[in-house]
Design brief:
This protein is α/β, with parallel strands linked by helices. It is 41% helix and 16% strand.
Length: 417
């Protein structure tokens, strides 16, 4: 018997043409024949201003591979902290009011929230879910308010407590909380004021974009393959949390000892600092390639000998699995991690590479030297072990089937109430 199609509302502050993992989920559910609607804002991440192509032709962005896209106005993120706060506030207010009006008369079987920061993006989903009598699923990808404290955005106890009350209000009104890391469970429970049933807390990790599962040529327009040097690639956000001072110190320690080049791709708050440091310290073994589209990453990774993930340590980051870990595992390349907690456990458990403690410059230099002097065939086996681990634990097709099953079970529960 053929199962009926689902009517799914996805609420996300970030969506195509912004490069986000939620794009994959929407595409896969739409291609599977489900009726998908996306409630989102005007695209402006990460540049901070609304994309020119959207401003020129907004009608071109009303549909994404069969999914309907409903957009509400918001304040662009800009470059200052005040703009960012207004960006967060404007989306949840606009989506809760204008979004609800635009969706009037429509019925949904499930409401799914892509809950990267800020958590307030879940508020319109809770409101609309209540209006539509549809179960609400929140994919918790960041821990709030702990993340605000960890990155230094908010330190005042009273303000953190106020954010905590908002988080509690959201969590207690969601039907399911999907957690990207098993380490999130205890933190999330703190904000559930009533006993939460185990079936409402579901481990639901991220996956790698499809680009990393397709065979890639060992050639890239960004970087030439050079077998005479060991190539370490870092790709992603260049922020303070990634601890680039320690990465550059490790690069300096190895300079002249072993032929290693460090390739850093991406942009962020530390971009300018990195450029200045590489020049002033004459680190000719560090290449800064700038920001490039996701589609360029698989071929770049294919030119690498190892892929680097680094993150400063604190109680929040240790429980988080950076999204790049899945992409690295899927790429069949060895991984170097200067990181603690869940991510380090995955690197070591998978056999995909080596990890040292966060901030350990000497440790990063040591594991890089160890991997650089490891036999090429052994390094290939490590990459294959990482890929096998990825397929067992983070396969997108398996995760999508699990989510569809949850949607159907929740819909049935609502129907018999």
């Amino acid at each position: 018997m053929m199962e009926s199609k689902l009517r799914i509302l996805v609420v996300t502050q970030y969506f195509w043409p912004e490069n986000m993992r939620i794009n994959d989920l929407v595409r896969d559910f739409a291609e599977a024949g489900h009726e998908v609607t996306v409630l989102t804002g005007f695209p402006n991440y990460p540049e901070g201003s609304v994309f020119p192509e959207y401003k020129a032709n907004p009608d071109d962005f009303k549909e994404y591979v069969g999914a309907r896209v409903v957009r509400v106005p918001l304040m662009p993120r800009g470059k200052r902290s005040l703009n960012l706060i207004l960006n967060y506030l404007s989306f949840f207010i606009s989506a809760s009011t204008i979004g609800a009006i635009k969706l009037r008369g429509q019925k949904f079987d499930s409401v799914f929230v892509y809950a990267v920061s800020p958590i307030m993006a879940a508020i319109p989903a809770v409101i609309i879910g209540r209006m539509k009598n549809a179960p609400v699923f929140i994919w918790v990808l960041d821990l709030w308010p702990e993340t605000l404290r960890a990155v230094g955005v908010l330190r005042q106890p009273n303000l953190l407590a106020m954010v905590g009350r908002v988080v509690s209000w959201i969590y207690n009104r969601a039907d399911y909380l999907l957690l990207q890391s098993k380490g999130f469970v205890d933190n999330v429970k703190l904000y559930c004021t009533k006993e939460i049933s185990p079936d409402r807390l579901v481990y639901f990790p991220s996956w790698a974009e499809d680009d990393f599962s397709s065979p890639s040529p060992v050639s890239s327009s960004l970087l030439e393959r050079d077998n005479s040097v060991f190539t370490v690639v870092f790709a992603g956000n260049l922020g303070e949390a990634q601890d680039f001072p320690a990465v550059l110190d490790a690069a300096e320690l190895l300079k002249g000892r072993v032929p290693v080049r460090w390739v850093i791709v991406g942009d962020g708050r530390m971009s300018e600092w990195l450029s200045e440091q590489v020049e002033s310290r004459r680190l000719d073994n560090v290449l800064l390639l700038g920001r490039h589209p996701l589609s360029a990453m698989p071929s770049l990774f294919a030119c690498a000998d190892a892929l680097l993930v680094s993150l400063k340590t604190n109680d929040v980051f240790e429980k988080t699995i950076p999204g790049k870990v899945q992409a690295y595992l899927a790429s069949s390349k060895p991984i170097l991690g200067m990181i603690n907690g869940e991510a380090a456990r995955i690197i070591e458990e998978s056999g995909a590479g080596f990890a040292c403690s966060s901030g350990d410059t000497q440790g990063l230099a040591s594991i890089t030297l160890k991997l650089a002097t490891t036999d090429v065939a052994q390094r290939e086996l490590m990459g294959q072990a990482g890929r096998s681990y990825y397929l067992r634990h983070f396969s997108k097709s398996t995760l999508m089937l699990r989510l569809e099953k949850l949607f159907r079970e929740a819909t049935l529960r609502r129907a018999v109430k």
